[in-house]
Amino acid sequence: MTLKQQPLLDQEGLKQHRKNEVVLAALSIFSTRGIETTTMVDVANAAHVGVASDYRNYSTKIDLALAAAVS
Fold it and tell me: How far apart are the first and last CA of the chain?
């Protein structure tokens, strides 16, 4: 691996970490409040990310719920 490749790997690792945090936050909120009453903003706030990040990775709440269910 070259020095130029290292930042790319770190950036991809950070993206995956944030994505995992969103799924974990969604799982926690869905289990306490239910899927219907939870918003993407609720999940974003709990995961400490912007709501645009939620929608970038999961275009709908159902997509996010499926990701949480299989995690």
Answer: 30
pTM of the full structure: 0.81
How far CA 25 is from CA of 2, 17, 34, 56, 58, in Å, comes to 35, 12, 13, 16, 14
The token duo for 36 is: 């219907």
CB 23 within 8 Å of CB 54: no
What is the C-alpha to C-alpha distance for residues 38 and 52, in angstroms, rounded to an integer? 16
pLDDT in tens, 18-56: 899 999 999 999 999 999 999 999 999 999 999 998 899
